[in-house]
Amino acid sequence: MNSEELRKALRLYLVMGSPNCGGADPYAVLEAAIAGGITMFQLREKGAGALQGSALLELGARLRSLCAQHQIPFIVNDDERLALELEADGIHIGQEDAPAAAVRQRLKHMIVGVSAHDLGEAQSALAEGADYLGVGPQYATRTKLDAREVQGPAMIARMREGGIGLPLVGIGGIDATNALPVIRAGADGVAVVSAIAGARSPQEAASELIRILQ
Ligand SMILES: Cc1ncc(COP(=O)(O)OP(=O)(O)O)c(N)n1
Ligand SMILES: Cc1ncsc1CCOP(=O)(O)O
Ligand SMILES: [Mg+2]
């Protein structure tokens, strides 16, 4: 996938694991979100009740195959081994995970996404071979308990002004009411967890977001 294709794929990026689905079946939630128009998916199995071992592998394989059927890029959060086992299209790593340069070196064929919280981290991620950046939290979030301080869309504008041209997605507390300022600040898309996975209708939530982003 070239960088223009990646920019398009990042438009509405669902990040989700089973703990984010409010007791609903994650496969059904992803199916509905795809029907609603999400353009990329990240398996992020974290938090209370997160699956591990063979149960995680089994769920990951089902979600991976659903994404493949719909040509939705499938990304794995944090875990290189899981990404390889599931033949993922990519991996997303943060500042507390394995160093981006080493992951880039090991997973040459994969999309490598890196979390960046300021211009310095964005410049380092670029130098280390990141394919895209996740920038946040844009707004207050209850999903990631160890999230950094809220930055607002201004940090994205600062990165763009600082010469960061990489595909970039905002994350953290984003929903249909506040997605547009993230795009206007220079993001190619928005990454959301609860606005879709925790919605009464994930399909309607995704289609409403896509309508706003277009
Ligand atoms: C698209 C995207 N952006 C940022 C993150 C956060 O990654 P990280 O800082 O490593 O935190 P965890 O998600 O691992 O808790 C992300 N997952 N996706
Ligand atoms: C994974 C992650 N990284 C920064 S904020 C966040 C959680 C976003 O979840 P939500 O969209 O529910 O606020
Ligand atoms: Mg991480």
TrEMBL record:
Gene: thiE
Keyword Nuclease annotated: no
PANTHER family for this protein: THIAMINE-PHOSPHATE PYROPHOSPHORYLASE, THIAMINE-PHOSPHATE SYNTHASE
Binding positions (Mg(2+)): 78, 97
Keywords for this protein: Magnesium, Metal-binding, Thiamine biosynthesis, Transferase
SUPFAM superfamilies: Thiamin phosphate synthase (SSF51391)
Keyword Metal-binding on entry: yes
Reactions performed catalytically: 2-[(2R,5Z)-2-carboxy-4-methylthiazol-5(2H)-ylidene]ethyl phosphate + 4-amino-2-methyl-5-(diphosphooxymethyl)pyrimidine + 2 H(+) = thiamine phosphate + CO2 + diphosphate; 2-(2-carboxy-4-methylthiazol-5-yl)ethyl phosphate + 4-amino-2-methyl-5-(diphosphooxymethyl)pyrimidine + 2 H(+) = thiamine phosphate + CO2 + diphosphate; 4-methyl-5-(2-phosphooxyethyl)-thiazole + 4-amino-2-methyl-5-(diphosphooxymethyl)pyrimidine + H(+) = thiamine phosphate + diphosphate
Annotated Gene Ontology cellular component terms: cytoplasm
GO biological process: thiamine biosynthetic process; thiamine diphosphate biosynthetic process
Designated name of the protein: Thiamine-phosphate synthase
Pathway: Cofactor biosynthesis; thiamine diphosphate biosynthesis; thiamine phosphate from 4-amino-2-methyl-5-diphosphomethylpyrimidine and 4-methyl-5-(2-phosphoethyl)-thiazole: step 1/1
Named cofactor requirement(s): Mg(2+)
UniProt: 2-[(2R,5Z)-2-carboxy-4-methylthiazol-5(2H)-ylidene]ethyl phosphate binding residues: 141-143, 173, 193-194
EC number: 2.5.1.3
Primary role: Condenses 4-methyl-5-(beta-hydroxyethyl)thiazole monophosphate (THZ-P) and 2-methyl-4-amino-5-hydroxymethyl pyrimidine pyrophosphate (HMP-PP) to form thiamine monophosphate (TMP).
Gene3D superfamilies from the UniProt entry: Aldolase class I
Family, as annotated: Belongs to the thiamine-phosphate synthase family.
